[in-house]
Structure formats: structure tokens, C-alpha cells
Amino acid sequence: MIQGYADHAANERTFLAWVRTGVAVIAFGFVIEKFNLFLLSLLNTASLDPMRRSQLERLSGPSTRYEGLGLILVGIALLIVAAVRFVRTERLLADPQVHPIAGVRAEVILAAVLALIVAVLGALLAVAG
Question: 26: closest CA among 66, 62, 72?
């Protein structure tokens, strides 16, 4: 039996939850990028009336071009932070010495960045709608 198995299992579950979140954020970034590409190709190929064209141009404006890329980068950052924290926590669990509780700075910063991105996307959708 592994010494402190419950702690190691909890660390692995936390790691997998962070990985799942990072992959979901990356996938959402790809969806946004593909949607922007679809809108741009629709604008270039379709003969639309001026009102519809202006609506589509507003949806695929310059401010919306980098949202998907931003989400992809945030997702990659989530995966890197998750891997680093997993390895660090595994080493601390394997060490028999007692260690103080580590801070939660990385989680708070990444959560704030995700909240900011969601707020910006929501505001852009509200303006576009």
C-alpha cells in the first residue's frame, strides 16, 4: 500500500480537473477562431445586402480577432500551471518533513484572467446583439 494514498489520489484528481478545464478553454478558443473564420469567409463570398453585411462585419471586427487566440493561450497556461503544481505537490507529499500550506496565487490569477475574458466576451456579444 502507498503511504498517504488518499493525499496522492486527491492531488491527481485536482490535476485532472485542471487539465480538463485547460482542454475545455483551448477547445472553446478553437471554436471562436473557427467561427470568426466562418464569418470572414461568409463576408468575402456571399452577396449580402448592406444591413446584413454591416452586422457580420461588426461580429467579426478587429476586437474579436484575438479572443480565440487569447483563450487558447490561457488554456495552455492552465495546463502548464497544473503540471507544475502537480509535480511540486507530489514531491511535497513524498517528503516526510511537514511543510506549511502553499499559497493559491496561480489559481487566483488564472481565475481572474478567465473571468475577465468571459466578461469581455459577454460585453462584446451584448454590444453586437
Answer: 72
Task: Answer whether 118's CB lies under 8 Å from 74's CB.
Answer: no
- What are the domain boundaries of the chain? 5-128
| Contact by Cβ (8 Å): 18, 89 | no
pLDDT tens digits for 12-52?
999 999 999 999 999 998 888 887 777 777 767 767 677 77
**Helix axes 67-94 and 5-45, enclosed angle (nearest 10):** 170
pLDDT at 126: 80
Angstrom distance (rounded) from CA 124 to CA 128: 6
**Are residues 64 and 35 in contact, defined by beta-carbon separation less than 8 angstroms?**
no
- What stretch of H or E contains 56? helix 50-59
**DSSP character string of 5-30:** HHHHHHHHHHHHHHHHHHHHHHHHHH
